[in-house]
Amino acid sequence: MCGRYLFSMEQPTLRQLWEQARQRFPNVKMETGEIFPTHTVPVLIGEENTLSPRPIKWGFPRVGGGGTVINARSETAGEKKMFRNSLMCRRCAIPASGFYEWAHYGERQKYRFTLPEEPVLYLAGLYHTFGGEQRFVILTEPANASMQAVHDRMPVVLKRNELKTWVFDNT
Predict the structure, then answer these.
(1) 165 — phi, psi (to 5°)?
(2) 37 and 3 Cβ atoms separated by less than 8 Å
């Protein structure tokens, strides 16, 4: 599960993406810093064979109301009606400085995960339009060795060279 992540304006790449989204959508308020569900943030989507930052709200509305779905399991997203079409044709990448998880074993403690060799990481996501508003979810997968002691799930992290393939390749 990924319930919060960091979008640091101290990171030049993230600052540039935020500015590009702000220039194209000047009337949309976007958040920075620690990002919570329902915040609107820059997300990379495919537009005319280019990755473009667009302000999108985090979380699909829950069917029947009453909350927000913020994550989709990568293993079953294609089987779920809520995610199936987005998985096929509305993939996105969520730029971040890191993500947070809370220990699910023992004392509840918050941890921030980053890629030591990369200042920016990209989380795989899906987006869709609900009531005229674009929204996204973050795909998750079973935790890798670096996360297992804290949590059993983690976001799907994309390498920079995987972004276009993830967003544009429908296979």
Answers:
(1) -60, -45
(2) yes
